[in-house]
Amino acid sequence: MFTVAHAEGEDGAKVADTLAHEIAKANSGATLGFVYVTDRLVDSFPAMLETLRRRTGIPHWVGGSGMGVLARGFEYFDRPAAAVMVARLPADGFRVIPSLRARADRLSPEHRKWIEQVSPPFGIVHGDPTNAETPAVIERLSLSIGGSSLGESRGGFLVGALTSSRAANHQVAETITSGGVSGVLFAPDIPVATGLSQGCVPIGPLHVVDECMDNVLVTLDGRLALDVFKEDIGDLAARDLRRIVGHVHAALPVKGSDTGDYVVRNLIGIDPARGWVAIGDVAAHGDSVMFVRRDPDSAKTDLRTMAENLKGRTRSGIKGGVYFSCVARGPNMFGEEGLETAVIRDVLGDIPLVGLYAGGEISNGRIYGYTGVLTLFL
User: Fold this and answer.
1) SS3 letters for 211-241?
2) Residue 281 to residues 45, 262, 270, 292: CA-CA distances in angstroms?
3) Boundaries of domain holding 144
4) Residue 137 shares a structural domain with residue 267
5) Are residue 221 and residue 115 in the same domain, yes or no?
6) CA dihedral sign of residues 323, 324, 330, 333
7) Which DSSP letter does residue 254 get?
8) pTM of this prediction?
9) Do both 142 and 236 map to the same domain?
10) Closest by alpha carbon to 176, among 14, 369, 357, 45?
11) Dihedral sign of CA atoms 187, 192, 193, 196 in order
12) 182-215 tens-digit pLDDT
């Protein structure tokens, strides 16, 4: 029911022809396609999508662009390539969501009717990182699905990725779009399992934010934020803070999480004179924060553990999967292409798999960083 094809090349038309040929000969009756291209081919994306639609006859498509794509045991990073996975799903088992650019945007009456009738609990979405409204749109979409209990929305579970293109941040939602959040929602009778793998490990304890200004941490645990930060990273690193740029980050624990999840945010500034630390998110009095570092060995171990946990939940077999990994992972973290897909294949077997290197990963309606998000269709 799930078929994957991937190809590399400077000529987008030839790449699309190769993908369409592989899909057409291997799968008949597919109804939904995922398509991902690297930003080296982003200018050819509209024509490539049209070729895929015309040559395969598959009516519905979703996807996006990134600095890297993956398929089965292959990863294409910072070079022209594309990957496709198609699936034969019942016509009423999914709905493609068009681009929503602002939290006030409303779905069409047809979409709202389907959501009310079906109560889709799960969706895969793609967002534009240049739109400041993207997090709010994802949150609102998540709250609009999943059914209700005693008149209150339970909310649905959204996973996905923010595009990571150095050119146009193209998405696919039937046609090429950009600027918002788009994707596909699935009915309850499309079974899935999903997991999140962290790429950073804590280097100190949780701290309480005593004083802050938006994204600037002023005091933690009653002390200047920079003093606490230096204590956590150690004397050697604290002597030259330039050495930790890109390696040490702030992490905000997810409230109510029973698995210890946290969202990682970049350090975007340090004020040595005042002792302040600026992070890539807004903090509030009473919040918890800790400092973490990128760690390839821990990330690899966590990825394997996540895949093994998913395997334990998939007794009926795996039909296909979608994996979103941070653009700072892949060869930028592990030093080589193919390591993440190799870990997944080692644990789960050679399943149909497609995905994107993202500018932010989405799990349970939240935007993460430096993580890997794997979804399996069962």
Assistant:
1) EEECCEEEEECCEEHHHHHHHHHCHHHHHCH
2) 32, 13, 14, 15
3) 2-197+299-377
4) no
5) no
6) negative
7) P
8) 0.93
9) no
10) 45
11) negative
12) 999 999 999 999 999 999 999 999 999 999 999 9
